Amino acid sequence: MAENKEEDVNLGANKYRETQPLGTAAQTENKDYIEPPPAPLFEPGELSSWSFYRAGIAEFMATFLFLYITILTVMGLKRSDSLCSSVGIQGVAWAFGGMIFALVYCTAGISGGHINPAVTFGLFLARKLSLTRAVFYMVMQCLGAICGAGVVKGFMKGPYQRLGGGANVVNPGYTKGDGLGAEIIGTFVLVYTVFSATDAKRNARDSHVPILAPLPIGFAVFLVHLATIPITGTGINPARSLGAAIIFNKKQAWDDHWIFWVGPFIGAALAAVYHQIIIRAIPFKSKA
């Protein structure tokens, strides 16, 4: 019992290094920066650690709450007679960005506060976490999203199906290529912001600039939603798109669904490559 308690306290119950938890790893007392070693592809010890499963549960709950609040906001907008009598598109964007800010703040020390398979994928490509943890996070995020959308449908049985269920689709007037491009660029903005906001080197180099990681990440989500809600309803999060599509479960949601996986994963990969090679120049540093 004593050992379990000690493990539970260490770094938000993260006995096994999973990389830089959002908003925590960048805030170090030591200003002399040392590049952390890449995470192993597979870390068997994680599977026997309570901290590993605790992190997955945190990702599940965060994604559940994210879908619950955001889809309810979308449904409230669509039920209104006009945008002026509801929160409007800006309000929907604030709901998504604000929830990401709050949830990353709450879960950063436990799981890293990913709440998005695209973010997890980008961090995995940068060797910030193991494949084991990345796959586990993605599964828990998707399950949380499905449950969150399901609760919303339980509250609004009739209107939910009639109003689209918050599912992402390419809107009329735009092509599938437009939708794919919007998802790629939007996710690039998000994941690039995640890398920059959680970069431990920034604290060592720019210690005079205070960084609260959840704030720029939430603000990036807000801005991307403002730009792309008219195009795709804004996915940039495969779990969010999957949860809404499964619960809504109509043809129009599934016709375009591939866009909301392919686009975010491409965007996340590009952001990881750009940050690691261009911004950090890690592959080109001398070993001396």
Can you characterise this structure?
- The protein is 63% helix and 0% strand.
- It has one domain (44-276): Glycerol uptake facilitator protein (Up-down Bundle).
- The chain has 12 helices and no strands.
- The chain has helices at 2-9, 50-79, 88-107, 117-125, 131-155, 157-162, 176-197, 200-205, 214-232, 238-248, 251-255, 259-279.
- The longest helix has 30 residues, at 50-79.
- It is globular, with a radius of gyration of 19 Å.
CATH architecture: Up-down Bundle
Low-pLDDT stretches are 5-30
The CATH C-level name is Mainly Alpha
- Structural class per helix/strand content? mainly alpha
The span between the termini is: 45 Å
Count of separate structural domains: 1
Question: What's the helical proportion of residues?
Answer: 55-70%
Under CATH, the homologous superfamily reads Glycerol uptake facilitator protein
Query: What does the main sheet amount to?
Result: none
Mean pLDDT: 85
Bin the strand percentage.
Answer: under 5%
The radius of gyration computed from the alpha-carbon positions, rounded to a whole number of angstroms, is: 19 Å
How many β-strand runs?
0
Shape call: globular
CATH domain fold name: Glycerol uptake facilitator protein
- Listing every helix as H and every strand as E from the N terminus to the C terminus, the arrangement reads HHHHHHHHHHHH
Number of helices, where a helix is a run of at least 4 consecutive DSSP H or I residues: 12
GO cellular component, one term: plasma membrane
InterPro entries: Aquaporin-like, Aquaporin_transptr, MIP, MIP_CS
Transmembrane segments: 52-77, 89-114, 134-152, 211-231, 258-279
Keywords: Membrane, Transmembrane, Transmembrane helix, Transport
